[in-house]
Structure formats: structure tokens, C-alpha cells
Design goal:
The structure is a single chain. This protein has 159 residues and is mainly β. The chain has one domain (29-149): 3-layer Sandwich (Rieske Iron-sulfur Protein), CATH 2.102.10.10. Helix content is 9%, strand content 30%. The chain is built from 1 helix and 10 strands, in the order H-E-E-E-E-E-E-E-E-E-E. The strands form 2 sheets. The chain has a 6-stranded antiparallel β-sheet with strand order 1-10-9-4-3-2, with no helix packed on it. A 4-stranded antiparallel β-sheet has the order 5-6-7-8, with no helix packed on it. A hairpin with a 6-residue loop joins strand 6 and strand 7 (112-114). The chain is globular and about 60 Å long. The model is unreliable at 20-31 (pLDDT under 50).
Length: 159
């Protein structure tokens, strides 16, 4: 007589394997154990709605883009929670995204990402959101990048 496994049993076993393999810590997304540098990427007083500011983070070969959306956003900072930053590398093939019409557009294959919804892809060939750069606002209004949620395209590690 053969034993049958329920879906729930299989899921529990797989979850246990993942937990053991990862040392009990989540490995996807922002890893607090990584020593991300804090870097000034702008000042809250110099931003205008819809204007993109490009910068390099977490190192000189990774471009990021900061934008004040004028509407509340997931992970947004500032008074209106409308300032966000993302990796500027499309998650499909690494082309540089551009901020146009309230969204990020990849000029290579036309993937589109919603900056108000944590960089979620809603059109095109990309299948994952843009990695979001975590921001903090200093007392003087400086915007500091201080981590990345997700893996930057083409990398095995962000830093």
C-alpha cells in the first residue's frame, strides 16, 4: 500500500528545507546583515513632482533614480510619503529605465513599472519589480540611500 502526501505536507517539508538552507533567515529582498553604505542622493527641498534625479548606489556602477511622485507610494518618505528611489536597471535585461508619465519605462523592450506600488512591473517582458532603494530623511532634509530591497539586475549580490 503506497502512502500519499497531501499538498500541505509537501509544502511543510519544502518550507523546512528552505528554512534550514537559509540558516533560518529570509534571503530574498533586503538583507539587514549587508553593510549598505549611507549616501546622500538629494535634498527634499530641491525636488519637484515628476522630476527624476539619477545617482549611483550602492556603488559607482549601479545607477539609481529618485523621484517625487506627488502621490503616496509604498516605501515612500517625506511629508506626503511620495519620494521613492529604485535601481534604474530593468529587471528583464538590464537596460536603463526612464521616468515618463508617472512610471518607469524600459526603452529596450517596453516593460513598465509602477513607482507607487514598489516598482511592480505591469507591462512588458520583465517579471520582477525594480529593486527599491530604501531612503531616510535627515533633519536638514537630506535624502539618504541606505539599502536595496531586491537584487539589482546582473548581480549575484548587491554589494
Amino acid at each position: 500500500m503506497a502512502a500519499t502526501l497531501s499538498r500541505r505536507s509537501v509544502f511543510k517539508v519544502l518550507a523546512g528545507v528552505v528554512a534550514v538552507a537559509s540558516g533560518g533567515k529570509a534571503q530574498y529582498g533586503y538583507a539587514p546583515s549587508l553593510a549598505y553604505p549611507a549616501l546622500k542622493v538629494g535634498n527634499i527641498n530641491n525636488l519637484r513632482d515628476g522630476q527624476a534625479v539619477y545617482f549611483n548606489y550602492p556603488d559607482g556602477s549601479a545607477q539609481g533614480v529618485l523621484v517625487k511622485l506627488g502621490q503616496r507610494a509604498i516605501g515612500g518618505v517625506g511629508r506626503g510619503r511620495d519620494i521613492v528611489a529604485f535601481s534604474a536597471a530593468c529587471t528583464h535585461m538590464g537596460c536603463g529605465v526612464q521616468f515618463k508619465g508617472g512610471r518607469f519605462v524600459c526603452p529596450c523592450h517596453y516593460s513598465m513599472f509602477d513607482p507607487a506600488k514598489a516598482g511592480q512591473c505591469y507591462q512588458g517582458l520583465a517579471s520582477t519589480p525594480l529593486p527599491q532603494i530604501r531612503l531616510r530623511v535627515a533633519q536638514n532634509g537630506d535624502l539618504l540611500a541606505q539599502g536595496v530591497v531586491g537584487l539589482i539586475w546582473g548581480r549575484a549580490r548587491n554589494i
